[in-house]
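Lecture 7 notes: from sequence to structure.
We start with the chain below.
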Amino acid sequence: MSVRSRLRKKETLDKDLDKIVRFEEAAGHVSRGLAGPGLSLLFIAAAALFAAVYVSGEHNSVIIIIAAMLGGYMALNIGANDVANNVGPAVGSRALSMVGALAIAAVFESAGALIAGGDVVGTISKGIVDPATVSDTGTFIWAMMAALISSALWVNLATVLGAPVSTTHSVVGGVMGAGIAAAGFSAVNWPTMGAIAASWVISPVLGGVIGAAFLAFIKIKIIYQDDKIAASRRWVPVLLGVMAAAFSAYLAMKGLKKIIHLDGFVIIAIGVGFGIATYALTKPVIRRQSEGMENRNQSVRHLFSIPLICSAALLSFAHGANDVANAVGPLAAVVHTAEAGEVLAKVSIPWWVMLIGAMGISIGLVLFGPKLIRMVGEQITKLNPMRAYCVALSAAVTVIIASWLGLPVSSTHIAVGAVFGVGFFREWYTSKSKRRRAYMSRKLGNVRPNGEPRPRPTSVSQPEEARRRMLVRRAHFTTIVAAWVITVPAAALLSAVIFLLLDAAF
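Predicted structure tokens for the same chain:
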């Protein structure tokens, strides 16, 4: 065989091998893309099988099994979208890896749902629809089915688009739309709907203001001090005490209501007690931890990493205790109505229904959560442990204040609003703060011998510099706000259409 023939044969073999390698890579990519949906279908099938075993031989068992599948689908979507708010800032600040965040959130979400999940849920979504107007059991069951399908589809779409939305608002919209389709506009409690609409503004603004206030405190009292280590030893234990007070009160008020009922003064006493104890315990720890540290911002950030991880775990526990009802509330309503043949405003959640919700949230988080975690933690604005700590602390403090004042709020809107607040505050502080300019002048030596400031370089144009100082990505801001605004009406419209189709078909 000639040299030319051997070379031609080798080229042909290389091309064939290259085609095989590309085919294997394409197949691997497709299989990875199908793994999540495939495992989700397995979980939904398992939920149906679990429900079938529990309700075997009962009246309307087929309806209950179908509802269990829909509740499992909704739980998967809550895990994929809503849980990102709890661990996203910790991941974005590099205090937690993605794997660590998924593990912590999955464990504490499930623990919160199963240990402290509410045993009584307003199945008409906190009084959105009067049960008396939908007293027919068949109509009520289809309305709850439509609410489950529409809210799950909307949250699924929002996750695909990368928009963190309120699953509570999705369920509210679904129930409202089905109620209107079933019994007309008079069936809806419009004052309650008005309060929920107000929460679209109250939640993110309150979260943003409180998050920005904490960041301003850290910048003024620690970051822009000449001796950052001494300032950290003085103020970090105070901030940790505030965190302990906020989270202990938050868990006592919202997360442990199934285990024990506490009045307001006891909750305050618990918060103050944990806050003082945490301050006393962490003060010597922070002093030892800060010994030998350089007088740099990076040293200060290190002091916030472990508290940030703890806050992510606590937020996940409280979220599981409260928001699991979004997945299983309508499911519990269907189960009770199908079994008992009556419509009630509130029903107890069976343990197997709660288990479906808890497991679905954790599985949805692991399979699909990373996309929204990166969005909240990395893509809206740049976070470090101090900024992420402000976001987490704002979430707990805002919920406590809103609950105390009786204001309806969304945990999703609060957390994402706090991220926006931190980012917008940084924009303002970077360009407007005299304290920061004075500190940077001392640090960089941008002053003349006579004390006057040196002229700033003019190599960068003013529009370009202004663009670089926009620390919050405006495209994500407008997309997320738009998704928040249309969540309730979009879920309501979708639910009404689904209800009419179900009612016509059955």
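Points to note: The chain has a mean pLDDT of 80. The longest helix spans residues 3-54.
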